[in-house]
Design a protein that fits this description.
mainly alpha, single chain, Four Helix Bundle (Hemerythrin (Met), subunit A), Arc Repressor Mutant, subunit A, 10 helices, 244 residues
């Protein structure tokens, strides 16, 4: 069919004090060359990536001074990034103790998966109805990269490409409110994805599921897109249930 022309239990870990870094002057000079908003966003993305990939594990205490030294960013942007991650449900603030990475809680995980499934299925339908050739090309590019990194079993890259695929799909759906809702749900579920994709066949299964979704979108078939996304979401739910 020719595509019509039409215009996204707490585990506690002790934290050792860190001495002030020796390169303070260099860091201060570097900070003066970057805009505060840029520093906040950089700190936010860097810390979030460490949470998603479990470099900062569920239940780990988060030390602002250590993160500031590690990221070579001042404590204020790090503090602001942690506040934002708290609002997004990735970090918890414990009174008189500080911040910890939010632990996995079975009920919360299943609720996120349920909410995501409902909205991702609708998103796939809209994408099949509204996607442009540019959207299709962007999705194809993500899948090409996925195939490469899946062959290398690079889970961190695959996590980021999974995020990219679903963002591109939401963009194709042409519904900003839905895209923003899905962005938050997907970000919160990425670390579950990371820890549940240890087996090699899971990487290939995810790629095949994404390919099925794209095939339906490419054919402008909303029902097939819904069915492909439903299968993808059910596979994710099963992976999470088996883990927890």
């Amino acid at each position: 069919m020719a595509r019509p022309k039409r215009r996204e239990p707490v585990i506690e870990h002790a934290t050792k004090p860190v001495a002030p870094p020796k390169d303070v002057d260099r860091r201060i000079a570097r900070a003066h060359t970057r805009h505060p908003e840029s520093l906040r966003e950089e700190a936010y993305e860097a810390i979030k990536l460490r949470i998603i990939t479990c470099a900062l594990k569920p239940g780990d205490y988060v030390n602002e001074l250590q993160l500031s030294a590690l990221l070579e960013i001042g404590r204020t942007p790090v503090h602001q990034a942690l506040e934002r991650l708290t609002l997004e449900g990735m970090v918890d603030i414990i009174p008189h103790k500080g911040a910890i990475v939010r632990p996995f809680r079975l009920n919360e995980v299943l609720q996120i998966a349920e909410a995501r499934s409902i909205n991702e299925i609708h998103c796939a339908r809209l994408a099949a109805e509204r996607a442009t050739n540019r959207n299709i090309a962007a999705l194809e590019d993500v899948l090409a990269q996925t195939k490469h990194w899946a062959s290398l079993r690079n889970v961190e890259k695959l996590v980021l490409l999974d995020r990219a695929f679903h963002r591109e799909l939401a963009s194709a759906a042409r519904n900003d409110a839905l895209a923003e809702l899905l962005r938050g749900l997907h970000e919160r579920s990425l670390r579950f994805w990371f820890v549940s994709h240890g087996a090699p066949d899971q990487h290939d299964r995810m790629r095949r599921q994404h390919e099925a979704i794209l095939a339906a979108v490419r054919k402008c078939d909303p029902k097939e897109a819904e069915a492909a996304m439903r299968a993808h979401m059910e596979s994710l739910r099963q992976n999470i249930a088996a883990l927890l």
